[in-house]
């Protein structure tokens, strides 16, 4: 990506890009997935990737893996060759800044390289475990919505049903908490006694109940029903989230084994 | 009218205009957000925005028409001429989702009894006992190229999300919305690159694009209650709500696949809203415990005394879990 494009993105987010140029940039965004990924990356992380926030992020963010970080580093190095789409393909955000700046200047390449190096440092223990869990989830292939077993509780590692929702839509920290029965009850009892938030970094218990994911079509129905009562500000987030949801790969649906909610979505009134 | 009187009127009008223009910069965050809430439900507008979340950017267009009874709104992904893309049209109590991947339009209807229920106007209050803190973060030029004030709505605990809002100084419309997790990290951004207030919007502009017209209609619920079916008892409530949340409404709601309306409890902290659905399990439907997320909306479902209880809201995932697990029959 050229410095010129950096400046344009920066100016767009600062509201300083002339209308004509903004139109061209938006048109380019529309047809260039690599550019979209890069913009998402820049706008969400800004230029303020700091060690402190990175350490905080490493506690909870599902992005900690040396191999993954190295790939990000490689992606940044190879940016001139438009390889930023590596990030998009992985569906993972870089660690975010705790103090997002008002002026979202696009970082220089040097600053970003430095940020990646700093980001590599605080990895360890729970963070790495969470990262591995997160990456394992992302590796699950997209599957058909409402495929056989859609209404059955399923293991994470073998969950093709809600995979589209799962890949980008479920927070691994919630998974970790849900996967551990002890962690969940701890969370609630902690709330009841002191009203203080319990820790998110509950260790994964191998003996805990398997987490289940609400099938995507059923989840969408709940979200639509909820959108009727959410406020006008939040409703925009909720509805655009529905429209932007990754499109699941379609496969033939066997009506005999599909949950009722899915049948409705598939054509039966 | 005498010339002198006309002069006075002109002077008065000039002062009024100057006053209102200057006032936007002087308003407290609370007043400005109140003005924004009003603008969101009283204005007609169209515009284009980028949604950035989950490592992707989508370009959207919105057409919003204020009507005597609520509004009609069309939101769609901009995908180029003739290319079918997802589209959502809300008209009165009906919400239609156009899905190119299945060539279907899923139609959902609110219950007739819900009538004019069109969502809760967010109430932004500042104060130490309030769940949110309002912070004025100065003036800037928004992505629409106009002066805007930046207000952060900061969550005081981990049960809710915060916002950073760019509010247009003249129209009070939000031109950029950053959704923040409880740590203040950005999880989703809606950035308007164009936003126009409109006095008149034609019906044609609220029609789905040609590329998605003619899709097969699929019902998304809200069928009339079959004769002889007793409605689910409504005595469900949430034993302990997270701080700042209160139960504001009990409704009945038809959900797809349901054989009867579900109980719909509405919980809010003034800004965020959580819906709790209580369903008697339908035949052949396996009770489950699980979670999910679509964009800013998280969901948690569990089983309480043989009923499927699902909480959905634009809140952190643990909030819906805590609320769902606290639902009990009376």
Describe this structure in words.
- The complex is a heterodimer of chains A (269) and B (330).
- By secondary structure, chain A is mostly helical.
- Chain A is built from 14 helices and no strands.
- Chain B is mostly beta strands and 330 residues long.
- In chain B, the strands form 3 sheets. In chain B, strands 7-8-9-10-11-1-2-3-4-5-6-12 form a 12-stranded mixed sheet. Chain B has a 6-stranded antiparallel sheet with strand order 14-15-16-19-18-17. Chain B has a two-stranded antiparallel sheet with strand order 13-20.
- In chain B, 14% of the residues lie in helices and 43% in strands.
- Chain B has helices at residues 3-26, 29-42, 317-325, and strands at residues 45-53, 56-67, 70-77, 87-91, 94-99, 104-109, 132-141, 147-155, 162-168, 174-180, 186-197, 216-219, 236-238, 246-253, 262-268, 273-279, 290-294, 297-304, 307-313, 327-329.
- Chain B is globular and about 80 Å long.
- Residues 112-118 of chain B have low confidence and may be disordered.
- At the A-B interface, α2, α3, α4, α6 and α9 of A face α2, β1, β2, β3 and β4 of B.
Largest sheet entry of chain B: 12 strands, mixed
Poorly predicted runs of chain A are: 44-209, 249-269
Largest interface, counted by CB within 8 Å of the partner chain's CB: A-B, 105 and 121 residues
Mean pLDDT of chain A: 47
What Rg of chain B, in angstroms, do the CA atoms define? 22 Å
Biggest beta sheet attributes of chain A: none
Which sequence of strands runs across the widest sheet of chain B?
7-8-9-10-11-1-2-3-4-5-6-12
């Amino acid at each position: 990506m050229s410095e010129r494009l950096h400046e344009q993105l920066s100016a767009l987010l600062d509201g300083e890009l002339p209308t004509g140029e903004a139109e061209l940039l938006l048109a380019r965004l529309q047809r260039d997935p690599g550019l979209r990924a890069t913009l998402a990356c820049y706008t969400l992380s800004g230029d303020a990737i700091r060690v402190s926030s990175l350490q905080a992020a490493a506690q909870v963010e599902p992005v900690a893996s040396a191999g993954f970080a190295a790939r990000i580093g490689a992606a940044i190095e190879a940016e001139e060759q438009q390889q930023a789409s590596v990030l998009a393909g992985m569906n993972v955000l870089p660690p975010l800044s705790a103090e997002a700046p008002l002026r979202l200047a696009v970082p220089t390449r040097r600053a970003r390289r430095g940020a990646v190096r700093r980001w590599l440092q605080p990895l360890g223990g729970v963070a790495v475990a969470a990262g591995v869990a997160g990456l394992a989830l992302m590796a699950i292939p997209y599957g058909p919505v409402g495929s056989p077993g859609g209404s059955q509780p399923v293991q994470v590692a073998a969950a093709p049903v809600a995979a589209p929702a799962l890949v980008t839509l479920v927070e691994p920290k919630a998974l970790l908490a849900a996967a551990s029965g002890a962690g969940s009850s701890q969370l609630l009892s902690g709330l009841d006694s002191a009203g203080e938030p319990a820790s998110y970094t509950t260790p994964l218990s191998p003996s805990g109940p398997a987490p289940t994911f609400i099938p995507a079509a059923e989840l969408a129905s709940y979200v639509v029903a909820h959108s009727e009562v959410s406020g006008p500000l939040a409703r925009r987030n909720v509805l655009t989230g529905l429209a932007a949801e990754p499109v699941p790969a379609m496969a033939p649906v066997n009506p005999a084994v599909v949950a009722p909610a899915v049948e409705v979505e598939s054509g039966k009134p | 009218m005498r010339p002198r009187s006309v002069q006075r009127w002109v002077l008065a009008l000039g002062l009024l205009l100057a006053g209102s223009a200057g006032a936007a910069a002087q308003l407290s965050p609370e007043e400005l957000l109140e003005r924004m809430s009003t603008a969101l439900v009283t204005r007609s507008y169209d515009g284009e925005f980028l949604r950035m979340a989950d490592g992707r950017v989508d370009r959207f267009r919105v057409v919003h028409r204020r009507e005597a009874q609520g509004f009609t709104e069309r939101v769609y992904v901009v995908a180029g001429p003739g290319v079918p893309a997802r589209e959502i049209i809300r008209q009165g109590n009906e919400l239609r989702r156009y899905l190119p991947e299945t060539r279907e339009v899923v139609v959902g209807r609110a219950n007739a009894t819900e009538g004019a229920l069109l969502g809760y106007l967010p109430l932004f209050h500042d104060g130490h006992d309030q769940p949110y803190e309002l912070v004025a973060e100065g003036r800037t030029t928004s992505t629409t190229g106009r002066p805007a004030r930046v207000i952060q709505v900061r969550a005081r605990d981990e049960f809710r999300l915060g916002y950073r809002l760019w509010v247009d100084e003249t129209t009070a419309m939000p031109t950029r919305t950053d959704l923040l997790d409880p740590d203040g990290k950005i999880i989703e951004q809606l950035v308007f690159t164009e936003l126009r207030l409109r006095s008149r919007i034609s019906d044609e502009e609220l029609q789905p694009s040609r590329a998605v017209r003619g899709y097969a209609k699929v019902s998304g619920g809200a069928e009339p209650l079959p004769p002889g079916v007793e409605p689910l008892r409504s005595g469900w409530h949430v034993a302990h709500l997270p701080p700042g949340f209160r139960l504001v409404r009990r409704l009945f709601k038809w959900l797809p696949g349901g054989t009867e309306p579900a109980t719909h409890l509405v919980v809010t902290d003034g800004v965020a809203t959580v819906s709790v659905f209580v369903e008697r399990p339908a035949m052949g439907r396996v009770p489950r415990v699980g979670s999910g997320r679509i964009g800013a909306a998280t969901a948690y479902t569990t089983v309480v005394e043989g009923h499927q209880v699902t909480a959905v809201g634009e809140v952190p995932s643990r909030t819906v879990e805590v609320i769902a697990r606290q639902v009990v029959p009376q």
